[in-house]
Amino acid sequence: MADGKLILFSRQGDNERVQCLDAASSKAIWSADYPTAYQDDFGFDDGPRATPSIDGNHVYTFGAEGSLRCWDLGSGKPLWAIDTTAQFHQSKGFFGMACSPLIEGDAVILNVGGRGAGVVAFDKGSGKVMWQATDDEASYASPVAATFGGKRYVLALTRSGLDAFEPTGGRVLFRFPWRSPMNASVNAATPLVIDDRVFVSASYETGAALLRFREAGPEKIWSGDDILSNHYARGKNELVCVDLRAKP
Questions:
Q1: Distance between CA atoms of residues 119 and 102, nearest Å
Q2: For the residues 135-147, what does the mean pLDDT come to?
Q3: What contacts 111, CB < 8 A, 6 or more positions away?
Q4: Helix (H) or strand (E) holding 85
Q5: What integer pLDDT is reported at residue 43 of this predicted model?
Q6: Residue 234 predicted with pLDDT over 60
Q7: Strand, coil or helix: what is 28?
Q8: CA distance 67 to 212
Q9: What would the pLDDT profile of 100-118 be if each residue is shown by its tens digit?
Q10: Residue 178, Cβ neighbours under 10 Å: how many?
Q11: Among 208, 115, 96, 108, which residue's Cα sits nearest to residue 157?
């Protein structure tokens, strides 16, 4: 939601649909469709899975098939579109593309998952690639931006682990391996930043870890599979509180 407008992103037949509603009355302001052929291999649903991002008068969506699009918030006019699958040849994975676009400065940053394009930054005004880095496969977690020591950083939990980047230029600062030993597994919970610490978690015999951010490489405060296992940004049917001050 922004400026009294609610954006919905959904699948309608053979189209992915972006709708803008008046948040107070639910009256439709505009709607836009584009075709998609995405089919889920597990019969779960056919997406899309990513939450839209709003920045100023622009809306950014990322479809299950890898279509990154920018729309005018006021009118719904399409401003630009990038077929990331055609451009970066990332695999479909288990459930297609799922991360929400991160707007940081002039960039739209995505966990794409292509070779040489594990994480990609696009110019938010034109869609032009600003930088791309790593060979990591995509996870279902969204990248986050945070300030440590007065500097901005981007953190992305890929399928391989937690990567830290400089937002401008995309220089990789460190990589912290964090992945289940099982092939049939996913990383899906978005990293949490608490002061100078970063919390990551995953299911499939992986658990949780608390890291202290260091530009040269994170300091692991604690980790363990018996602490908390988040699947898709939630616990397993229960509310759990973890004391970050010391390993439970």
A1: 11
A2: 96
A3: 99, 118, 119, 138, 139, 141, 142, 143, 156, 157, 158
A4: helix 84-88
A5: 85
A6: no
A7: strand
A8: 35
A9: 999 999 999 999 999 999 9
A10: 24
A11: 208
